[in-house]
Structures are given as C-alpha cells and as structure tokens.
Write the structure tokens for this entry.
Amino acid sequence: MEELLKRYPCLENCRSDIEAAVNMLKSSYKQGGKLLVCGNGGSCADSEHIVGELMKGFLLKRKPDAKFKAALKNCGYEDYEYIADNLQGALPAISLPSQTALISAFANDVSADMVYAQLVYGYGNINDVFLGISTSGNSKNVVCGAKVAKAKGLKTLALTGEKESKLSEVCDISIKVPETETYKVQELHLPVYHYICYELEKEFFEE
C-alpha cells in the first residue's frame, strides 16, 4: 500500500476502501467464492484485465500443489508432468462482458440494460463478490447488476470516479478515485486493481 501511495499519492483518501475491498475478496475466496466483474467500454477492458491477473500468475508463478500433480499421475496420463508444470493457480473470476453470445441474445430478446443483471442472476452465489466498474458510477446495466447481486446475497464492490453515484449507493464498498474525467478515472483504476490483484495473489500463492 505504501508503494502504491508513493506512486499515486492522490489515492490516499481511497486507502481504507481499497483495503476493505482486499479483505472482502480474501474472505470470499477463502469461502469458495468467485468474482463477477463488469463494465462498459474501457471498463469492460478493465474487467477482462482483472480476470487475466486473477486466473493465472500475475507476479508469482503459482505452481499447482503436489496433491494435484499426484492426482494427474493417478489418472494414468503419460504427460501428467507436462500438464502439471504448465498450469498455474487460479482465483476464480468471470468477466461478464466476455459472454458475447448470451449478451447479444438477451439484449435483443429482452433488455440491453439488464444483461449484467441476468448474468449475475445466473452465475451469482452467496459467497461471491460482484465488482461493478463505471467511471460515472451511473451506468444503468452495471447498477442493475449490482442490485441483483445484493438481492442474491453477494458482497458488492464499486470502482468509480470521485462523485457519489447510483452504483456507490448500492454497493457495500465503493472505491471512488479522485478524478471526474473518464480517461483520468480510468488511469487511476488500473493501479488500484493491480494492487488488489497483487494482495490476493500474495495471500493465496506466496510460498
């Protein structure tokens, strides 16, 4: 955290919310939960980026444990060592915008504003965390997704700009970076979620 704030001192006011988000996600993963993340445009790209950091090695190699390697061997696979040596530990996460066929079908058949809500309704479980990314905090499809997440008992996290918003009103924790222009908000979102991903990786995979 101190290194993050040294590089981005403007995030000092977000410190407690960032740390709370890390603790929320640690608790979720320890209980077998997963992360459901969504956004639009650049925030959609951030959703994909976050999932990439969680589902494979970020700063650590995350080697599978010996028990799993033994399970592969016991299956009788001749290439069990190759398979085991080329896997990395994962923290389950789904980027909702990546579900393109389902999103386009639901938007066409039902409602574009409800696509993330539908995905949360289908994927979400009690120990999961919903992360909605919106520079304004008022993206209707993201807000609807957060509302469904709350109703299903998920923990909810928002990553927005500095203004109060519909998303920050709904979510349990809101990280409101101190900018209002879209591109400036996005520039601060990246170091925030990189820090969160690093802290999670360190918690679950550091030897």
